[in-house]
Automatic annotation (TrEMBL):
TM ranges: 6-24, 96-116, 122-138, 268-286
Subcellular location: Cell membrane
Classification via PANTHER family: INTEGRAL MEMBRANE PROTEIN-RELATED (PTHR35007), PILUS ASSEMBLE PROTEIN (PTHR35007:SF2)
UniProt-recorded name of the protein: Type II secretion system F family protein
Keywords, alphabetical: Cell membrane, Membrane, Transmembrane, Transmembrane helix
Span of domain Type II secretion system protein GspF: 156-285
């Protein structure tokens, strides 16, 4: 009976994780689709639609009311959501609602099972695990998205540099490359389009670049923002700066690959060593067994 209960708890955790992941991915896809339509319907109308949809999300408001009151905790959660691709403010309430709903449902189920079958109180650790599970999933989504952005950044900068050498301006090249690579690399194209929208509505370019680095806290993006801000202050060639930066990124990537390849031999040796030692041990033990058998 205890094994069946543990199996049921495991199935509940799996289903809860799967439902949470699907809900977050669906919300993210909807938000990306709305941002892609932004160029056709205008920024003002898009903001109005988002405001109306956030007012209709009652469970987002409930989650925001149940969430923490600490400003630091809310900002931390918002940064994780933005890094994972959930930029709208209502996602904070949705995150806290899903988090506390999972804990409440699992706690009620644990109480019911404990009262009905008198199982071990260890079952009450399940709500604690579900309390931490949404944060783990959110961090995983954020890390995967940021890694995809970092991997596609050198190619994006190379195509931007080619467009600038063809006669387009700095911002015009970013816009053109974002339109061309939107299907292949949607994450980085979406971020650069958002950067262009901020500059378009009047945000100072350096402030928009700093916000771009805050939304995507990776070493590559922070380095790119520093290069662009320094270029804004010094007035040097943006094309040369982007070319040098992308070249350094390719060199760092090549050195990382060489380092991983150098470590592969040691890791393979640890895996192969037991298989190499096994025949020798069999021969030694076999010889001893035969000697003992003949002695008897």
């Amino acid at each position: 009976m205890l094994y069946l209960l543990l199996f049921g708890v495991a199935v509940l955790i799996f289903l809860s994780s799967w439902i949470l992941l699907k809900a977050l991915q669906e919300r993210r896809n909807q938000h990306l689709q709305m941002e892609r339509v932004k160029s056709r319907i205008g920024l003002g109308q898009e903001l109005h639609i988002e405001h109306v949809s956030s007012e209709r999300c009652w469970w987002c408001s409930l989650g925001r009311a149940l969430g923490p009151r600490s400003t630091r905790e809310i900002e931390k959660t918002q940064r994780m959501l933005v890094s994972a691709g959930f930029r709208n403010e209502r996602y904070i309430g949705a995150y806290f609602f899903i988090k506390f709903a999972l804990v409440l449902v699992s706690l009620l189920i644990a109480l019911f099972i404990w009262a009905l079958f008198a199982v071990s109180p260890v079952i009450f650790f399940v709500p604690l695990i579900l309390l931490l599970l949404p944060e783990w999933l959110l961090k995983g989504l954020a890390n995967k998205r940021l890694s995809r952005i970092s991997e596609s950044l050198p190619d994006f900068l190379d195509m931007t540099n080619v467009s600038m050498n063809s006669g387009l301006s700095y911002l015009g090249s970013i816009k053109r490359v974002s339109e061309e690579l939107k299907e292949l690399q949607p994450e980085i194209c979406y971020e650069f389009e958002f950067l262009l929208d901020q500059i378009k509505i009047g945000v100072p370019r350096q402030d928009a670049l700093r916000q771009f680095a805050i939304r995507n806290p990776t070493r590559e993006i922070e380095g790119l923002v520093q290069v662009l801000i320094q270029n804004e202050k010094m007035g040097s060639s943006i094309s040369d700066a982007l070319n040098e930066f992308s070249r350094r990124m390719y060199q760092n990537r090549e050195s990382q690959m060489e380092e991983k390849a150098a470590k592969t031999s040691a890791k393979m040796a640890m895996v192969i060593m037991p298989f190499l030692l096994a025949p020798y041990l069999i021969l030694l033990l076999g010889e001893r067994m035969v000697a003992l058998g003949r002695g008897l």
